[in-house]
Design brief:
- The chain has 343 residues and is of the alpha/beta class.
- It folds into two domains: 4-35 and 42-151, no CATH class; 154-339, Vaccinia Virus protein VP39 (Rossmann fold).
- It is 45% helix and 13% strand.
- It has helices at residues 4-28, 46-65, 79-102, 135-148, 153-158, 161-171, 187-195, 208-217, 255-268, 290-300, 305-308, 313-318; strands at residues 178-181, 202-205, 225-228, 241-247, 269-280, 323-330, 333-339.
- A seven-stranded mixed sheet has the order 3-2-1-4-5-7-6.
- Helix 1 (4-28) packs antiparallel against helix 2 and helix 4 packs across helix 8.
Length: 343
């Protein structure tokens, strides 16, 4: 068990490492001529964002102290591996910036992929190379997201472990069935399994490449089931799951598909079960960030984001019969918790 001081040193170094790469990437990015002009004082300063990041880290540490989950396993990653990840990110950056400048965002929509995946999925989200479809993209993804959030991505994901932990303390883990929808490279699944080794956890994702990377992430836990499939058609019987989680999925879905996925989650959740969603904050969640939310989809190609930040997700799930337990903002994310009432 690491102490608070060691945790603080590790997270401070993490923020500096990824924050420095964010500043460099931002300086190398092409100008956003089509972005709405920023009103004076409408965008938060770097100091304001960093202070908010460290509030997230303090919250993360308090959760560790409270026993919700162990301290991060990669608090002090091997320097050689960290450097290799950074160099790979920077080598790919010119290609990303070229797509950003030319507004090229559908390179992965071609004769080979057409019909195999939904059209909304076949895009270069974030202008990244290969979309979600290659081993290289899967290997690079977690580093890209940490740069985007200046080292706070994993800590934001871990906040879902608090409502999950509360539910498991009340209901027990033995015999409980869980599914992480759009599990990606399984960073969240890994932390969930570390925190609750007796819970039967599983992941679903549409990308074979990301599932391959997920299996590598979960090599300590070969019992975790990983399935390739659509979030809008969950391969689960009605009421077949006690716990459902989803991290950073909904902002990359068109509204119609968002509603389909929500309905599938409500269908698959057992009475008395819990659904926890971590995703981007929305307009009104934190006023100092509101104008940033309108600029983000222009810089990073998120075609459904403008609609997402104005979508009443709490109402969408309560309309399906789920009870809204609460929504909390954590840095640039929101954690939404819903329970399915018992008959």
């Amino acid at each position: 068990m690491i102490g608070r001081t060691l945790y603080g040193v590790g997270q401070t170094a993490r923020a500096a490492w990824y924050g420095g790469q964010y500043i460099l990437a931002n300086r190398l990015a092409p100008p956003m001529y089509d972005a709405p002009p920023a009103r004076p004082g409408s965008l938060p300063s770097w100091g304001v964002v960093r202070a908010d990041l460290f509030r997230l880290f303090r919250r993360d540490w308090e959760n560790v102290r409270a026993g919700y989950y162990p301290a991060p396993a990669d608090l002090f990653p091997p320097p050689g591996r960290a450097l290799a990840k950074a160099l790979d990110f920077l080598r790919d950056l010119p290609a990303v910036n070229l797509r950003r400048r030319l507004k090229v965002n559908s390179e992965v929509f071609d004769a080979e992929t057409r019909g195999r995946y939904p059209r909304y999925y076949l895009q270069n989200f974030h202008y990244q190379s290969d979309g979600w479809l290659s081993d290289e993209s899967a290997a690079r993804y977690d580093h890209q997201v940490e740069v985007l959030f200046t080292g706070g991505a994993d800590a934001m994901r871990r906040q879902a472990l608090v409502p999950i932990g509360d539910w498991l303390r009340a209901n027990g883990a033995d015999g409980r069935r869980h599914l992480d929808v759009a599990c990606g490279t399984a960073r969240f699944l890994y932390d969930l399994k570390r925190a609750h080794p007796r819970l039967a956890v599983a992941g679903l994702d549409l990308s074979a490449a990301y599932l391959k990377r997920a299996r590598r992430t979960l090599r300590r836990y070969p019992e975790v089931a990983l399935t390739q499939g659509l979030a809008e058609r969950l391969p689960v019987a009605d009421g077949g799951l006690d716990l459902i989680t989803s991290v950073y999925l909904f902002h990359e879905l068109p509204r119609k598909v968002r509603r389909q996925v929500a309905a599938e989650m409500a269908r698959a959740l057992a009475p008395g079960g819990r659904l926890v969603i971590v995703d981007s904050i929305q307009r009104g969640d934190h006023a100092p960030y509101d104008d940033l939310l309108d600029r983000f989809p222009i810089a990073f190609h998120e075609p459904y984001y403008k609609d997402y930040v104005r979508d009443d997700l709490e109402a969408a799930f309560t309309d399906l019969g789920l009870a809204h337990v609460g929504t909390q903002r954590v840095f640039f994310s929101r954690v939404m918790t819903f329970d399915k009432p018992r008959p």
